[in-house]
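pinned: reference chain
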Amino acid sequence: MTSNTTENQPLRSWLLLGFLSLVWGSSFILIKKGLLVFSPGEVGAYRIVSAAAVLLPLSLPRILKLSRKQIGNLMVVGLVGSFLPAFLFAKAQTQLSSSITGVLNALTPLFVVVIGALFFKSKITFRNGLGLLIAFIGVIVLISVKEGSSISSLSSINAYALLVILATICYGINLNIIKHWFEALKPVEITAISLLLALPVALGYLFIQTDFTYKLAHVEGAPLAATYLTILGVLGTAVSLIVFNGLVKIASPVFASTVTYLIPIVAIAWGVLDGEMFLPGHFLGMIAVIIGVWVGNKKPKRKRLAATAKST
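pinned: its structure tokens
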């Protein structure tokens, strides 16, 4: 039996983990660059269109083999797990920095636990509850710090952070649905087909309800902004999903889940490079959120050893 602890992972596993951390951590700066030209709705819709388009070779042959019930359930996955979050993140970043958005995104694993406990009969432990409390305190600090003032100024709540939290709740619902409704389908199939089912909605919105095509042809900087969003959709959604599933197979779910803690680091790094303002309160809030996520998802030693043994 071989060990799958983080100390003994093969180089390939570390490279894949680094790739995922870089791509997913860069998603928020790419959204920010797209918003320089396009509206939040255009950013969200085009992200779905580009991701679904690149996965068409996977989704089209497989959708014909599904039942109506499976297709209906996958439509829910596409809308709740991809479509809505894409719009929520884009709208939130009109008033939030990309780095803070990246940190708030780390709340996703905690909402997976909460949604599972509320609606799918999963158990929530004391450790989960403690992690939620710490992360919640961090979120309050993050959304209360007023830009341009000192850490003591916590009077202006940034309600746009609630959009990010709502998006992470959508992710929590989506992951629980996938876990409990789709045991027979592979994760790559679920994502490819769910995006295909969301594609008509995204296309209809993008080309009927917005000026996306006009901006792309006439607004300065639009082609570059669209390129950023294409990278976001293709690499950040389609390719990264396949890479993540591959990482789970060659390493372990425990090792793969460490990407959750690396994404905020990459997002913060991009924010610093892009000249975003950081106050002491921002750093305190970020640290609290990351610690809360780590505490809430850290398994007891016995369970970690059992999970490692099971994956070898």
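why pinned: The chain is about 75% helix and 0% strand. The mean pLDDT is 83.
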